[in-house]
Amino acid sequence: MTSPSRSLEAMRAGAPLVQCITNYVAMNFAANVLLAAGAAPAMVHDAEESGEFAAVAGALTVNIGTLSPRWVAGMVEAIDGATGAGKPWVLDPVACFATGLRRETTTKLMQLRPTIVRGNASEILAIAGESSSGQGVDAGDSVQAAEAAARKVAQEAGSVVAVTGAVDFVTDGARGVWITGGSPMMPRVTATGCALTCLVGAYAAVVEDPLDATVGALAHFAAAGEMAGDGVSGPGSFSVAFLDALMAVGPESLGAARVRAA
Ligand SMILES: Nc1ncnc2c1ncn2[C@@H]1O[C@H](COP(=O)(O)OP(=O)(O)O)[C@@H](O)[C@H]1O
Ligand SMILES: Cc1ncsc1CCOP(=O)(O)O
Ligand SMILES: [Mg+2]
């Protein structure tokens, strides 16, 4: 196993280029998150160029937050490009239960076998075919309630699945890891989860085992969230402090204390 500390060092040393297909809400914040953490973002989503770009990026992330048929075409081209070039890709199924277009698109993208799926508990429950209480982009279920669903989706799709919330759970269907940390301010800042998905892509570009890569990215967020949450007065100042903390976090903050095998 590659420890989260080692993964952080590898991610910073490699400064991987990550192609992010993410939503209009998240684009700016996610790009800043990657730069602060030590990676290089590029928001490239149109079908005219997304496949070509995927072959040169270290990893691809695909987020359905502000979806349209034209975006879906760009996603499929990019996934073909990444898969053809042997690059990992990460799916963020934002509010995948909310509309027909989101349900159909998520089914289609899951059939293309994402290397990693990162969502909140309601999204992962919905992908597993179970009922969930999500409200739009926000979760209404606990991560613990989605543990079995995550294991099932991982086994069926052959993907690593990460469920995030007050605690995080990651599984490849056989192994399971819990990660603690973060701050209650994190769900009060929009696109925190979307930005995390992009960071998972950065780790996956340089860490061979997708489970280790995912744990590294989530531990990095957990440590930075904890650091930034200390003494801030609300979501606005948290958001600024969080970017600073993503850069300030070092390997010593990603120790065994916040990562536990299930
Ligand atoms: N109540 C909380 N306490 C600590 N960290 C949290 C909390 N809620 C979410 N997080 C963290 O915020 C990040 C985004 O997760 P989440 O809110 O589940 O995603 P999404 O925005 O897609 O719903 C993750 O790093 C997660 O651990
Ligand atoms: C508010 C909103 N609406 C469509 S996408 C989006 C951002 C969702 O971000 P996150 O999933 O990280 O909370
Ligand atoms: Mg989300």
TrEMBL record:
Cofactor: Mg(2+)
Keywords: ATP-binding, Kinase, Magnesium, Metal-binding, Nucleotide-binding, Thiamine biosynthesis, Transferase
Known EC number: 2.7.1.50
SUPFAM superfamilies xref list: Ribokinase-like
Associated pathway: Cofactor biosynthesis; thiamine diphosphate biosynthesis; 4-methyl-5-(2-phosphoethyl)-thiazole from 5-(2-hydroxyethyl)-4-methylthiazole: step 1/1
Cross-referenced Gene3D superfamilies: 3.40.1190.20
Positions of ATP binding: 118, 164
Top-level lineage group: Bacteria
Binding site for substrate: 43, 191
Catalytic reaction equation(s): 5-(2-hydroxyethyl)-4-methylthiazole + ATP = 4-methyl-5-(2-phosphooxyethyl)-thiazole + ADP + H(+)
Gene Ontology MF: a single term: hydroxyethylthiazole kinase activity
Function per UniProt: Catalyzes the phosphorylation of the hydroxyl group of 4-methyl-5-beta-hydroxyethylthiazole (THZ).
Similarity comment: Belongs to the Thz kinase family.
Designated name of the protein: Hydroxyethylthiazole kinase
Originating species: Tropicimonas aquimaris
Gene that specifies this protein: thiM
